Amino acid sequence: MINRIKALFEAPEGGSVEEHSVDEIQLAAAALLVEAACLDESYDEVEREAVRRALTQEFKLSEEECETLILQAEAAQHEATDLYRFIRKFDANFGHAERLRLIEMLWQVVYADGELHAYESNVIRRIGGMLHVTDRERSEARQRVLTAQ
């Protein structure tokens, strides 16, 4: 995914750079992860650490960069009225493999506390649908996360 993000800035000669910056895409991913973590009404340090781990691994961020991104994501998620503003950045800029990776990251975050709540499962289903990820692919991503735990 990080290579895809870098490619956004490498426009061909005479071409234009994509409209979304790396920071916007990272913020969108972080906000979706925070949203998933908050749905069980218990956004604790365990879930926050899962968000931090997923973002650090995926975007190769320093600890300080990741903390700043999480704080921005928490604020953006708190202000958001729907998920679409975050999802459209992925839909427009990433292929199917990157979308699947985001779904997998969401599963990692919601399972961080050892429980899956109905709201958490529902939001991943909705996000998956908006990203054109099939139910089967979503289930396979979930299974990969559970197997890795």
Automatic annotation (TrEMBL):
Residues 26-143 form the Co-chaperone DjlA N-terminal domain. InterPro entries: DjlA_N, TerB-like. This is Co-chaperone DjlA N-terminal domain-containing protein. CDD domains: terB_like_2.
